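seq:
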Amino acid sequence: MNYSLEPIAIVHSPFKEKFGTPRQPELAPSVHARIDFIPEFATPEAVRDLEGFSHLWLIFLFHQNWQKGWKSTVRPPRLGGNQRVGVYASRSPFRPNPIGLSAVRLLSINCDSGKVSLEVQGADLIDGTPILDIKPYIPYGDSIPDATGGFAEKAPKSTLQVDFSDLAKKQLALYQDETPELEIMLQETLSLDPRPAYRHNKEDSQEYGMLFDRYNVRWKVQGQQLIVLEIMQAVQA
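struct:
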């Protein structure tokens, strides 16, 4: 049987591309995202009493993987990208149905002029991600103290010390008014080492770049230090 689903909302976040986006929620807690309900579903009645819950489950579509097919085995970054596990033992986006699940902290609910939006913290979602459903996080049922996590038993640690070049520091000062949290957001995001897993713990002379919020960020890694070289405003399309 085939079933048809349609998004109820769209995510707006600083993460503009897969590269650099945290692989799990709450790893970059300073990063906020806004969830805008599509007009058909933007009714204040639908979010009534939601403010009583501190966290939400977001059920979303891996829209950049839509129609790319699925793989029965994948190589999780947590295993260095060189060991295969079954797709159902992973959170890979390459699934028979490319649907994801993310737990986030609810910061505020905004209902104004016929629009409804939620501000959340700790989202690991790319800008433009379609939300299929939102459910409240229920602590007594959703938190299982004796659960085990297989090869992902412990949360990934921030592996890199993030420093800024003199140029990047000057640029941060220029952007302070428009994006006051930019420095801490970049520190949290980049300390997780967004590079491909096979590059970790190796000498790496390559320079990397990513689009973050409205900025193009260029950086390199030396040992356990990540140096942000330059932060330029991105050209708006």
